[in-house]
Amino acid sequence: MEKSCFLTKKVVSVFLFFMIVMFTYLATPVQAADAYPYRNGSWLKADSWGFYQRECTSYACWKVRQAHGIDFNNSYRLSNGNRWGDAGNWDNAARKIRLRVDNIPARGCIAYCDPYTHGSGKYGHVAYVYLVSGNKVYVQDYNWGGTHKYGDRMLNKTAFSGYIHFEDLQHVFYVKYNANGGKGSMANSTFTYGIGGKLRKNTFSRSGYKFNGWNIYRYSDKKWYYTKGGKTGWYQKGKQPSGYYLTIYNDQTTVKWTTSKNKDTVEMYAVWKKASNEKPAPPNESLLEGVYKLKHVGTGKMMNYAWGWKEFAYKPIFLDKRDGSVEQTFRFRPVSNGKYEIDIMHKEGGVMNVWTSKTVSEGKKIGSWSRTYDDTQRFLVTYVGKNTIILRSAQNSNLAVAPDKSARGYLQLVKYNKNDKNQQWVIEK
Prior knowledge:
Helix content is 11%, strand content 33%. It has 429 residues and is mainly β. The protein folds into three domains: 9-168, endopeptidase fold (from Nostoc punctiforme) (Alpha-Beta Complex), CATH 3.90.1720; 171-274, no CATH class; 283-428, Trefoil (Acidic Fibroblast Growth Factor, subunit A), CATH 2.80.10.50.
């Protein structure tokens, strides 16, 4: 009697669970399965989004378009001719566009199976997640088992390799602006995840300081954004890996993927750099004030700015054959105490810069950067002949500018030697 009662209760519980699921299913305003526009199409023909009709990818694409209002297709946000392709490639494509992929199901996401896993074939499988209840997921799909027909199933969440969170593309995040010791106020910004937009132009001010960009703090996990070379990551202060420093976003930088958490807030903290009190020297202070070309004594080649290059994090300066171009032209601008800033005359230019965060050292590369008014961008001029000079670092006069031994001859800092022709330059007005 007790066993029978237990079984009855169990049957009732299961019945009630599925009634709740079905009621939720029927009561929610989502497109019905038979609204799929290619339900009677040929699976040998492509749909208007670039997938084959009545395949799992075509149906999943349609569901994403319907549920999230985005123009999803086989090349969505991919470049260089890349495509989403077969279902087994969808997780890789999602990662390329920085869409969240994990093992946590959510309504509106796409469940995927890697090829030859969880009952799928060599092309993998994708399905639309309609409902999540505990460890169970309710999915809708096409062509499960090679039927080219609609199906819906309730499965354990572990029945799939993972989940692609297209629903994140409906999320928004907020940006606050913090004067960080400055004065003024700036309105908040709201951005859609994956679409984004430009940060507001800085209007904060601070007496005796120059605005130098933004550091970024994220509310959801209480972390700051750090960088090291080409690597980045979010860390709590003091817990970042060795060598990482706070990332600086330039004024009006475009943000898009800053946080995937819906309605999260990130705060932009103004970075201030103490303004220089140095004034430009009068024109008669130096014979070098003006625009020059610099010919390398050792090779006879010209100092050349590599505009448009993307091989490095910075725009390098190297040796090249004389071509009369503006990228081989530099302005010597004297500042106090015998120091010079060397402007690059090309429109993309900036100022000659030692590629380092704080302290110059032997082997540091020379390239272009925006003006920071410090001695990493200032040089001393030493004459070794009537029109022949050596450029020494204003921060460390024991280091001089010279090309490295590569075919390009990228400029770097070496130990100063006035007799070394590799460090000598002929200046041409």
